[in-house]
Design a protein that fits this description.
Blueprint (H helix, E strand, L loop, with lengths): L18 H16 L13 H14 L3 H12 L4 H20 L9 H5 L6 H8 L7 H11 L10 E2 H4 L3 H10 L3 E2 L1 E5 L14 H18 L3 H4 L11 E5 H8 L3 E5 L6 E6 L1 H4 L5 E3 L13 H17 L1 H14 L10 H12 L6
Parallel strand pairs: 1-2
Antiparallel strand pairs: 3-4, 5-6, 6-7
């Protein structure tokens, strides 16, 4: 099903823009309008229409003026339509693809698999806080503590935590709360920094390109903030029930910060998927220093990615391509499986399994 939406003729009035931004956007609209008659040899992997939408909606939904300025400059450097298509395909491959492939598997904490049984939540928290969140395992548990052992969207209590905390079990039974397995959802996926070595030059180049595109949209150096083990900082993590986590990774769920309401967000996404979720959520922490909240800047970048992916038609194309990968038995000789192979290689470079 095609969910793409044509670019409006002009940038919305709510966007602060100058002549350069307007000129860049007008090039995207012109590319969109000419898409049905353009004949390129060889043809681009992505349709001209999707490429035009990606660039145009990135200008519309850039999470900051600095990010919009960077995208404007990138478009301005493109000498012709062919270069515009190449820029859009780079964004598709190394930016939208990065978030689409955010299938980080966060293992259970050793605290839960071998830890003692606690009478109170406070005793459990004291035990957990002995370790610093320097990897996926400890970061997941620290995020659980910050988020009160609950999914931040549904309020469902972490199923495994209930097995080790009598007070939590009593609360679930008394208040008739839901209990589900949860996962640590990375806003910027941990796989971006995994498996990199000085000898692995191809993978290193991929990650640098991906993070550079992210920096462009953010308007500042996200790469430095999340370098190495810093990718596991709590500012980059939310506790989500397993099914909510899958939606977050698949661009079906995002959070839009509400003006003048600190750490409060509108819950946005594909309407049939989010209709049972609360319209807004407020993130809280009892210890801002040691258990900081998810970064509104990171969530803003994720939200921009989701909206660009949906409105451009890129998400539909990604879903179709990865569906082809799962169903494909062998590579065809006519070139029709080339895009599926390309996406499989992107996954391989991220250190994630394709199937």
């Amino acid at each position: 099903m095609d969910h793409s939406v044509p670019l409006p003729s002009n940038l919305p009035n709510t966007i602060s823009s100058d002549s350069e931004v307007n000129a860049a956007y007008n090039r995207c609209v012109a590319l969109q309008d000419q898409a049905h008659i353009m004949k390129l040899d060889p043809p681009p992997r992505l349709s001209t229409l999707i490429c035009a939408h990606i660039l145009g909606y990135m200008l519309v939904y850039a999470p900051s003026d600095a990010g919009r300025c960077n995208i404007t400059k990138d478009i301005g450097k493109c000498a012709d339509d062919e270069k515009l298509l190449q820029l859009a395909q780079l964004i598709y491959d190394y930016f939208i693809g990065l978030f689409k492939a955010a299938k980080s598997q966060t293992p259970e904490s050793s605290f839960y698999t071998s830890g003692p049984l606690f009478d109170t939540n406070e005793a459990a928290i004291a035990h957990i806080m002995k370790e610093s969140p320097m990897d996926q395992r400890t970061a997941k548990v620290h995020a659980l503590v910050r988020d009160n052992f609950r999914c931040v969207v549904t309020g469902a209590v972490d199923f495994t935590a209930c097995h080790y905390q009598r007070q939590l079990v009593a609360e679930v039974l008394d208040k008739k709360l839901s209990s589900f397995a949860t996962k640590a959802a990375y806003i910027f996926p941990a796989s971006a920094n995994k498996g990199i070595s000085s000898q692995d030059s191809l993978k290193h180049e991929y990650v640098v390109n991906a993070q550079t595109i992210g920096d462009h949209l953010a308007g500042y150096d996200v790469r430095q903030e999340l370098d190495g083990i810093k990718i596991h900082c709590l500012e980059d993590i939310l506790t989500l029930a397993v099914h909510v986590h899958a939606m977050f990774d698949r661009f079906d769920l995002w959070f839009e910060e509400m003006v003048d309401m600190q750490h409060t967000y509108r819950v946005c996404g594909y309407p049939p998927s989010i209709q049972l979720f609360p319209p807004t959520v407020t993130f809280t922490t009892d210890d801002p220093l040691h258990l900081p909240l998810p970064s509104p800047h990171y969530l803003g970048i994720h939200a921009a990615c989701c909206k660009v992916a949906w409105l451009s038609g890129a998400k539909d194309y990604i879903e179709e391509t990865f569906g082809d990968i799962e169903e494909m038995q062998a590579m065809t000789s006519d070139g029709s499986s080339a895009e599926a192979l390309h996406c499989a290689l992107i996954h391989a470079l991220q250190g994630e399994p394709v199937f």
